Amino acid sequence: MEEKFLKILKENQNILHKISRLYRDSHDDQQDLFQEIVYQLWKSFPAFRGDAKISTWIYRVALNTAIASFRKAKISTDHFDSIPEQLQHNDNSGISENEERLFAALRKLNDSEKAIISLFLEDYSYQEIATITGITENYVGVKINRIKEKLKMIINK
């Protein structure tokens, strides 16, 4: 089971990196969130039935963890001695100035907006976004248009 879990994480670790960067500003906080997401995925892995795509499940757990951790006084990260080497958090080197500006603008969105736009940027369909976030497909379209307008305003300030 551990090998299967690590293989799935390795194939989908970009999701964890993006969510960590989106919901945390500092590199240390991003690493902490990354580790907390890995822990929550490991904890819930035995219950994953395969009803949804594995990436959909990973996004749901990652987003719920990122949002829930804001409510906690401190993120608990003492679950592992270390993250397996192939899953180490990236150091954000090679990120262009435009990408950094985009992430800075995305961080100014509220939690639900961040979740929706991150899925949209990953080319998830409106139906998949609706499934992950628990809102209707039509409302996904409305929210995406509003978020795009809000991002334009943030970036053009």
TrEMBL record:
GO molecular function: DNA binding; sigma factor activity
Keyword Transcription: yes
Domain (RNA polymerase sigma-70 region): residue spans on this chain: 10-74
UniProt entry keywords in alphabetical sequence: Sigma factor, Transcription, Transcription regulation
Domain of life: Bacteria
Xref: InterPro entries: RNA_pol_sigma-70-like (IPR039425), RNA_pol_sigma-70_dom (IPR014284), RNA_pol_sigma70_r2 (IPR007627), RNA_pol_sigma70_r4_t2 (IPR013249), RNA_pol_sigma_r2 (IPR013325), RNA_pol_sigma_r3/r4-like (IPR013324), WH-like_DNA-bd_sf (IPR036388)
The keyword Protease is assigned to this record: no
Residue ranges constituting the RNA polymerase sigma factor 70 region 4 type domain according to the UniProt record: 101-151
Biological process, per Gene Ontology: DNA-templated transcription initiation
Pfam family, one: Sigma70_r2
NCBIfam families (UniProt xref): sigma70-ECF
Family indicated by similarity: Belongs to the sigma-70 factor family. ECF subfamily.
Protein name: Sigma-70 family RNA polymerase sigma factor
Species per Swiss-Prot/TrEMBL record: Dyadobacter psychrotolerans
